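Notebook entry, structure prediction.
Reason for the run: the old model in the group folder had no record of what sequence produced it. Starting over properly, with the input documented here first.
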Amino acid sequence: MSRFAIYEIDTGKIERIYDGDDGLLPLNLQKGEAALRVLPHVTEANAAVVTGRVVEKQPLPIPEFLQVIADGVDECVIAGIPPGVVVQWPDGQTDEVTDGEVRFSVDLPGTYTLVFEAVEYLRKEITIEAVPATES
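New structure, fully documented this time:
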């Protein structure tokens, strides 16, 4: 039995894993896809293909939990984000990070989740707790 990663040629994103007979590639490759023999531990979530080689995805260098005052003015700044990472906001909108940071502010107290993804990085969810502003 052999294991193959079916990946997008342009991005290196592994779309699916195929377990098949030794030496046989799957016949259902889509346009723009290729296959590469991989080791048993490789999954879509933990690896990508870079210049024809399977590499482990790296963790994103961002915190897992942050806090912000829910006043619509205070901002939570998440910096050091590599270019090309896509952030999914709590409302479902997605944006590509181009300048290395994301800014988040909100006027309603609660817990908010942002999801960060990129082909060469592990998916990361961070939680932002928006706390009520204290009255003076």
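Summary: The radius of gyration is 19 Å.
The old model has been moved to the deprecated folder.
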